[in-house]
Structures are given as structure tokens and as C-alpha cells.
């Protein structure tokens, strides 16, 4: 049975043979990159022709494994700090290269991820008869964008064929002219198949980019308040980012040099779940929080700030995790104190978390992405057939 026949037999939307171009800033370690990896490999396996376009340097290497049949086009114009004039020139260069790469990929459908890349993609596809779906992967109400990017977002997003968010709250944030074709598709959870349980060393894990958003400064403050009460526990913060030096300085100032490790990015995806005994998410805001879901799927007890979206959707307080008011350091410290000091509670929450995470298994979520592609291609074909001059 060929892939097209298999698709029909399984009851999935007919998308085999579609040419899909996915645009993302980079293919490093991160939640968005992980989702791109999953859907690109999946669509490739169903018979689609998949092209990935990134802004990365030509010698960049992906963190996740992509099927060799997937074409990866690196434009060599990554985001960088520059003067206003230089920044403007770089944007023009990105637009020219991006438009050229999109045209060469001859897509039936373009999918773009993350706000700035969405704006660039919508600019680069002006005049091209191809449906563009954009995806917001963070909390659009909290992202720190300047007025120019906000204006571009407001002006250009209505041009998109559709918008994908991970929660209903994020979709509802946008005005009707932007969310007229809207899809809510949660992040899937995809743990390594070969992960090994090496737990039992009393490790409290946190994972994410070392940025202001992730709130590791708040976590260090909270942990410092309870560290003496739990001398057998260590905090390990996995990730890399611009705030490494300031976070290390804060750790040292709090006297936590021997209690907190910051080893960087894991050698392979998901490695951190092997040694973690509990997990904490200290983000000031989130679009979803895929590492929280990974921790739950791995059967870890979790504590999280109650971000507006994401954690609030995933966790039922006191049932499969503990939620605390956002940016409330004292409440976070008390919740961690409770978790670290109660093994029975950790076991109960971990078991419930693993059961709850089953809602987000890849097969179910990937089917929702298939439905989106099928819907977009059908609507685009219908609209194109109704155009008076299709040759234009």
C-alpha cells in the first residue's frame, strides 16, 4: 500500500504529495524547534515534499534529527545586534533571500513560526499566490516588542491565510480580522524512546533558555529560601542564553555555588528527564511550556508559576501538579518546600501527571496539523478556482 492509499485507509486528511515550506529562525534546541522537527518529519513520511528555511549561517547544525529527504535552506542572515541603518539593511537582505528561497521551493503551503519571522514571511510573500499560515508560540500579550514590530504585526497579520496558537487564550488575544481562520493546536510531547531512569539523587530540574522570560532569577531566590531545609537536594538549571553571567553571579551571591548547577544544553534532546526527581517551571510568561509537559509525561512531580496560558491548561492544581501565583517567589518557595519534603506527594503527583500528559501524545496532535494542511489546501484551491484570471 502506498503512502497516499495508507492515508485514505487510516481516515486521515489527504495531504500526500503536497509541497510544504516551513520557515523558522533556527533549528537549535527549543520548544518551537522541536515541534518543527516533529511535523516536518511527519509530513515527509506521508509523502509531502518538505522544505525548511532558516535564517541561520550556512554551517549551522540542527539539534534535532531531520530526515535527509527534507531540504534545509539556510539563508545566512541570523538576527544580530547592529545600528539602526545596519539593521534595516539586514532586514532587506533577509527579505530578498527569503522571497527567493520561498519561490524556489514552489510551495503549495507556507508555514511560519515566531512573530518576527512571521512578519518577514508575510512581507516576502506579497504578490505570491501561496497561502501563508503563521504560528504564534509565545504569550503575545507579554512579548517585549518595540513599536515598529508591533505596528508591522498589526498591519501584516491580517494578510495571513490563517493563524495557529497553542491555547484558546492566545488565539482570543488577536482581533477578529487576524483570527478569522484560527486553529488551536497544543504542543505534542515526544520523549526520547531510549531514555533511562537514573533518578534518586534528589535533583530538582529546571529547563529553558537563560533569559528574563524564564524567571530563573526568581527560582534562585525561591530555592535559596528553602535550601538549608533540604540539604540533600540540588537544583540543576539546563539551558543556555544571554543571562548566564548574571544568573551565575546571583547564584554565587545567594551562597548557592555548591547547590546549583548550570550545565548548559543537554547533549541530546530530553536527557535531563533521566536524572530529575522533580521539576519546576519559573517562567514569567509562556506560550505553552513544552518542558513542563515533558516532565509530566516522564512522571515527574511538577511545580509551576500559573502563567495565563500553557501551564494553566496543562496542570490541574493539587491533582497532577502544583500551581503558584505568577512571580510570587515566596509562594514558589513554599510549594518547593512541600514537594521536596514529601516523597508520597511526589509519587502521587508524578503518576497523575503522566496520565494527564497522554492527552498530548504526538499521533493525536500531528493529526490536527494534518487537518490544518488539508483545510488550507482545499480553501486555497477553491479561492484560486474562483479568481477571474488564474493566470495572473
Automatic annotation (TrEMBL):
Residues annotated as domain Glycosyltransferase subfamily 4-like N-terminal: 30-174
Any Pfam family: Glyco_trans_4_4
Domain of life: Bacteria
Keywords of the record: Transferase
Residues of the Glycosyl transferase family domain: 198-353
GO molecular function, a single term: glycosyltransferase activity
UniProt-listed CDD domains: GT4_AmsD-like
Classification via PANTHER family: GLYCOSYLTRANSFERASE
Name the UniProt record assigns to this protein: Glycosyltransferase
Organism: Rhizobium fredii
